Request: fold
Amino acid sequence: MKETEKNIGFSIIQLSTEQFALLPEAYQVSEPAQIQHELSFGIDKENKRIYVKKTARFHHVENNHPFSIITVSCQFQVNPDDWSMLEEAHKIVLPQNFGIHLGMLVVGTLRGVLYTKTENTIFNHFILPTIDVTALVPNDVIFE
Reply:
């Protein structure tokens, strides 16, 4: 990460629900459930865009077969004047705090999509709880 981290201007230009599945045959009402989290990043250097994808898999503690899977992605357009702040010696470096910020936006988006898609189903009580996104983005995100 660069020593002087400035605000990087960006806008959300696209939201996508890439995957959504409810598997009622794998769901057991009385069994405790947990969530497996994944967060990934991608870039488009030419268009100065960052892609962030978040997946949540709901499954029972005793059994790793998911009963609900959702993947949401957001595409962010970085201000062209600010893209140069991400360039370092033939690499693109997203500072950890910036990656966490983008990750939090995607987590919030996933939470809303999950609620809407499960409305009026037996799965609607499975909300995405607060998540420590710092654990999902422990360092700068580096693209070589």
